[in-house]
Amino acid sequence: MVQIAPSILSADFLHLSKDVELVNNYADLFHLDIMDGSFVPNISFGFPVVEAIAKKAAKPLDVHLMIVNPEKYVERFAKAGASMISFHYEAARENSGLVLRQIRDLGVKAGLVINPDCPVEAIFPYLEELDFVLIMSVFAGFGGQRFIPESLERISCVRKELDKRGLTNVPIEVDGGIGPANAGSVKAAGAEILVAGSSVFKAESPSDAISAMKNA
Ligand code: DX5
Ligand code: ZN
Predict the structure, then answer these.
(1) Do residues 170 and 150 touch, judged by C-beta distance below 8 A?
(2) Is 28 a catalytic site residue?
(3) Which side of the chain, N or C, has fewer Cβ within a 10 Å radius?
(4) Looking at the 3D structure of the chain, how many domains does it have?
(5) Is the CB of residue 173 below 6 angstroms from any atom belonging to ligand 1?
């Protein structure tokens, strides 16, 4: 069964408690986007917001770091309540193995993320050292963008490589422009965790939107 991770970036920041409550029983994870204004041209939120959500969330926190020097901050995000932490290959490059190990040593699941213009082969050397792969289906930085169709091929390519190496338990998470209309094809390509921001929080009924994606 596919997991749905609503992205808090699209929630109502004046009523975060209400929005967490709205999806608490339906979501599988809470996806928290951390942007530093340097790796991406946008700034989102930091530790106090993650800590506040951790108090209310009934599901694990999936922290997506869109920051430079992720190794400086993974420990604080683990302390703030993250169960999963992913960082961009483009931000860590040849240090990716070290950062993955650092995250795992904190008892947190470690994920490596790639933007749509990064060849999927770049992360192949790290597949044995990670707990999940996050494939961006939009360029990291903003919610509400359109799903890039070429992402489907990238998802199946990584799925094939994971399976070839016997890493059948390593899930692929996909992030950006996902909603009830395309969730089926994203799943069919091999994704097991779907991040969804605007299609959940801007929906009339966030719980219905989550069910629609699960059943797509
Ligand atoms: C984009 C973020 C996404 C974003 C998804 O940089 O990583 O998690 O919140 O939002 P939607 O689902 O609206 O594309
Ligand atoms: Zn994200």
Answers:
(1) no
(2) no
(3) N
(4) 1
(5) no
- Whether the CB of 32 sits within 6 Å of ligand 1: no
Residue 29 Cβ contacting ligand 1 at under 6 Å: no
Ligand 1 pocket test, pick from 62, 86, 113, 198 with the greatest ligand atom count within 8 Å of Cβ, gives 198
Quote the percentage of the chain above a pLDDT of 70: 100
CA–CA dist 120, 159 (Å, integer): 11
pLDDT score of 1 more than 90: no
* Centre of ligand 2 from the C-alpha of residue 165, in Å: 27
CATH number at residue 58: 3.20.20.70
Options 19, 28, 33, 36, the catalytic residue: 33
For residue range 18-64, what is the model confidence (pLDDT) as tens digits? 999 999 999 999 999 999 999 999 999 999 999 999 999 999 999 99
109-127 pLDDT tens trace? 999 999 999 999 999 999 9
Query: What residues make up the domain containing 144?
Result: 3-214
| Angle between helices 16-23 and 206-214 in degrees, nearest 10 | 40
